[in-house]
Amino acid sequence: MTINRQILLVSRPTGEATLDNFHLAAPELPELGDGQVLVRNFYLSLDPYMRGRMSDAKSYAPPQPLDTVMIGATVGEVIESRNPDWQPGDAVTAMFGWQEYGISDGSNLRRLHDTSIPMSAYLGAAGMPGVTAWYGLNRIIAPKAGETVVVSAASGAVGSVVGQLAKRAGCRVIGIAGGEQKCAYVVETLGFDACVDYKAGNVYEALRNAAPDGIDGYFENVGGEVFDAVMRNLNAHSRIALCGMIAGYNGEPIPMKYPSLLLTQRVKLEGFIIMEHLDIWPQALKELTEAISAGELRYRESMTQGIESAPAAFLGLLKGENFGKQIVRLV
């Protein structure tokens, strides 16, 4: 019998998540039934939204049940099939979670048609983070050439794509990231016009200097003091795509200091969950994969090895220790 190592959520965090919230299990894989497919997962995606699913607080999605495999996207290969629609060797992506193998009836599998790009990219720039960036920028911010767009967590999986797409739309793009190394990457490799290091001092003043004509569009991933600094630099009729607020993922309140600016600047602010917009995925994925294949959309990955490394890597992600898309290699 084959052992399927898994990471289970066994307790809910109080404040910061810890390693004690997780448990490494190693059950045997059952035999396949008629119509089923066995997939060997090659890579696992780690994403900030998972922290919210660990909590039982009211949210847009039900909490992760305790003593079950942690939720998460995977890419891998079919190694056994009793389903005529799927053959061994098929490369697929699915939501198998934090485990080395997945069993499916095939309904939740999606083929990776473009094999010219690395498989792991389908968990980042050519996957959910990339589609999130595409939707928030194009459907909410809707930038016009010549406008200024600001992106928080700019070196991350979502923010890095937002900025590059905004540059392709003819915008002046300013990133916000933590540390000189990340800011250098955002400007020199991703092509942003400027990057503000939120660890280096007054974010409001730095943004005012980087965007002397004000901010027209903002893609929000962080919240807290960074959000406040951006708010004070917004132009009239600016648009905010509210994707995440990682500053509050441990349950702390994150009040806004300047909510009146939403009115006085006539700001459009829209929160969104990308899984509620499945209709745009084909168009977004086509554009993203084509841009990656042509070398026009760059991305970076932080890679750890082995399913046992997932909890620590995830906790590091929540603290900003990753550089680019956080992925676990499972093979």
UniProtKB/TrEMBL annotation:
Top-level taxonomic group: Bacteria
Leading EC class: oxidoreductase
Pfam family, one: ADH_zinc_N
UniProt entry tagged with the keyword Oxidoreductase: yes
Keywords: Oxidoreductase
Gene Ontology molecular function terms on file: oxidoreductase activity, acting on the CH-CH group of donors, NAD or NADP as acceptor
InterPro entries cross-referenced by the UniProt entry: ADH-like_C, ADH_N_2, ER, GroES-like_sf, MDR_fam, NAD(P)-bd_dom_sf
EC number, as in UniProt: 1.3.1.-
Oxidoreductase listed as a keyword: yes
Protein name from the UniProt record: NADPH-dependent curcumin reductase
Domain Enoyl reductase (ER): 17-328
The gene coding this protein: curA
